[in-house]
């Protein structure tokens, strides 16, 4: 039986960076935990901020099946050397993840526009400016296209131009701040404000826009859920989509 929805996306929590996209029988796990059964799963890391690194390290080493090859986690080849370190950011994390997973997870370096292919789907890493290098992932096949942004500077003109030129069917974007008095802090910290998303939305008429990774300061979600709905944006735990619509399968409580 064929489903009328061609893809779905699941989140762990509204605050959490983990994004799990299911498309054409493959699960794309972006900044997301590793489990025991890893066939038909693709692991991607957007950038080396600790909330994202920690999220992809979750899942525990002990139950990772020893019969399987080590899990590959594709990650930006970030060659910066920081804080007096002699090794670069990528290598430091490669060792750390290798160590904590007892060799069961390996970071695989990828560069901007180095396209990965999985069946008929391609994954294109596209750099979006944030406080450190961040890859958004443009995941597309014959049927549809999805952009998962990671963290990005919402007020940055070039970032927006990149997203608009891709014009994905589904845009899954960080949206850290929502209130008017938070516009400045969003700019300062190179994160996304609701206003940035609304400006983008005007240019992306045919995109479904899903928000995620909101600030912990909204412990009471009711207000921002209402605001999101009013603006015709989506904030939910589990969403199915096709090229003409979507269905919310589970809401955030
Ligand atoms: Zn983050
Ligand atoms: Zn970040």
From TrEMBL:
<protein>
    <submittedName>
        <fullName>Carbon-phosphorus lyase complex accessory protein</fullName>
    </submittedName>
</protein>
<dbReference type="InterPro" id="IPR001279">
    <property type="entry name" value="Metallo-B-lactamas"/>
</dbReference>
<dbReference type="Pfam" id="PF12706">
    <property type="entry name" value="Lactamase_B_2"/>
</dbReference>
<dbReference type="InterPro" id="IPR036866">
    <property type="entry name" value="RibonucZ/Hydroxyglut_hydro"/>
</dbReference>
<keyword id="KW-0456">Lyase</keyword>
<feature type="domain" description="Metallo-beta-lactamase">
    <location>
        <begin position="44"/>
        <end position="213"/>
    </location>
</feature>
<dbReference type="GO" id="GO:0016829">
    <property type="term" value="F:lyase activity"/>
</dbReference>
């Amino acid at each position: 039986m064929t489903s009328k929805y061609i893809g779905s996306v699941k989140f762990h929590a509204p605050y959490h960076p983990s994004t799990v996209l299911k498309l054409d029988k493959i699960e794309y796990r972006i900044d997301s935990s590793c489990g025991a059964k890893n066939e038909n799963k693709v692991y991607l890391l957007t950038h080396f901020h600790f909330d994202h690194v920690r999220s992809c390290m979750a899942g525990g080493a002990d139950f990772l099946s020893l019969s399987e090859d080590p899990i590959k986690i594709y990650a930006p080849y970030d060659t910066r050397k920081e804080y007096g370190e002699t090794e670069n950011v990528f290598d430091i994390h490669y060792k750390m993840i290798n160590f904590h997973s007892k060799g069961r997870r390996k970071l695989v370096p990828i560069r901007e526009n180095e396209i990965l292919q999985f069946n008929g789907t391609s994954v294109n890493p596209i750099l979006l400016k944030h406080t450190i290098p961040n890859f958004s992932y443009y995941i597309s096949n014959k049927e549809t296209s999805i952009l998962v942004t990671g963290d990005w500077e919402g007020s940055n003109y070039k970032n927006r131009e990149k997203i608009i030129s891709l014009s994905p069917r589904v845009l899954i974007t960080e949206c850290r701040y929502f209130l008017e008095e938070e516009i400045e802090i969003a700019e300062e910290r190179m994160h996304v404000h609701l206003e940035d998303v609304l400006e983008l939305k005007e240019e992306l008429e045919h995109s479904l826009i899903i928000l995620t990774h909101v600030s912990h300061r909204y412990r009471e979600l009711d207000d921002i859920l209402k605001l999101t709905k009013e603006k015709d944006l989506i904030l939910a735990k589990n969403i199915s989509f096709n090229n003409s619509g979507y269905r919310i399968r589970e809401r955030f409580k």
